[in-house]
Structure formats: structure tokens, C-alpha cells
Amino acid sequence: LKSFQAGFTQTLENPAAKLKQNINGDVTVSGQKYHLTASGQEVINDGKTTWTYLKSENEVNISESDPANQDMSPTQMYTMYKKGYKYQLLKPIKEGGVTYDQIELTPEAKTNDVFKVQILVSQADKSIKSVKTFKKNGTRTTFTLKNFKANVPTTASTFGFDKAQHAGVKVVDLR
């Protein structure tokens, strides 16, 4: 899988705080690069630099990309099981006539805030349906993907921020 594009819904739940919040967006990923749009902001990462554009403020914050410091990056969806996690294949489940493999990841580091990750993968086309993280503080975050397209064409401009496209943008360089 060289790249993918998908719409998503992020659901944040914390039963103790009686919190349930949904955010919808779109993401394009290629290797360590991504372009994510959600809730009036764009987060663009070219593997070295991260631009966070806040549409309502017409402001872009620029910072160095630090993959080791990212809680859950879109670039990790298909690779997170390879490093720092033990994985286990659970019983397949069926939803809406589609059969999904359930994969459960547990972090090797006991100091990790996350104690479990559940991933649903379509048996038919191997696309990810959802990724659900369980944190020790009771928070659960679920990313549900829709309209998944594999190996979409991308260019360098897909993963860069063009100031010329945003007249009068305020630039805050945090590097």
C-alpha cells in the first residue's frame, strides 16, 4: 500500500466524564506524509514539517515533525503493529454483511497511556474499517474509515502548505 485516502469519523468517549464527541474529516496518507482536514483545521505533514492551519483564525502554525512524539498518527494505521506492540488475531466478526478480522494490539511498554488497540480489517480487500484505542484514564478513541481508496496518486503539493492559497495568513513558526 503506497498511499490511501479516506473519510473518517473520530469518536472520543469517556464514560466517567459522560463525554461522547464526534469529529468528521478526510485524510490522505503516503508513507510518513499525511494531509488531514477536520473541524475547520488542516494538519499537513511532509515527514519533516507539520503545518496546522486554523481556518477561522486564518493562521498556520509550523513545527518540526516528530514521529516519536505523535500519539496516533494517520501514517501509523497500517504499520503500528510492527514496533512496540504485541498483536493477536481474534475471532472474525460480521457487520452489515461484511466480515472483518479483529486484531488486538497491546503495548510492550507498560508505561504507555494506551493499554489496548482494536483494529477491524475487511477480509475482502484488507482495508481498515476502524481503529479503537483504549487509554488507562478511561478514554476511548475510535477512528472509523469510510470511502477508502488505496494507492491514490499524490504529489509533493499534497503534503505541503502553500501560503499563496491563503491570502493574509498569519504564520507562527515554532521551529
In words, what does this structure look like?
The chain has one domain (3-173): outer membrane lipoprotein receptor (LolB), chain A (Clam), CATH 2.50.20.10. Helix content is 0%, strand content 57%. It contains no helices and twelve strands. It has strands at residues 3-14, 19-30, 33-38, 41-45, 49-54, 59-64, 85-95, 98-107, 114-122, 128-135, 140-150, 170-173. The radius of gyration is 17 Å and the shape is globular. The mean pLDDT is 91.
Brief digest:
With 175 residues, this protein is mainly beta. The protein has strands at 3-14, 19-30, 33-38, 41-45, 49-54, 59-64, 85-95, 98-107, 114-122, 128-135, 140-150, 170-173.
Query: What is the CATH topology?
Result: outer membrane lipoprotein receptor (LolB), chain A
CATH architecture descriptor text: Clam
Give the biggest sheet.
12 strands, mixed
Count of helical regions: 0
- Report low-confidence residues grouped into runs of 5 or more: none
Question: How many discrete domains?
Answer: 1
Cα Rg: 17 Å
Q: Order of strands in the sheet with the most strands?
A: 7-8-9-10-11-1-2-3-4-5-6-12
Please state the structural category. Answer: mainly beta
Distance between the termini: 31 Å
Mean pLDDT equals 91
Outline type: globular
What is this structure's SSE topology?
Elements: E1 3-14, E2 19-30, E3 33-38, E4 41-45, E5 49-54, E6 59-64, E7 85-95, E8 98-107, E9 114-122, E10 128-135, E11 140-150, E12 170-173
Parallel strand pairs: 6-12
Antiparallel strand pairs: 1-2, 1-11, 2-3, 3-4, 4-5, 5-6, 7-8, 8-9, 9-10, 10-11
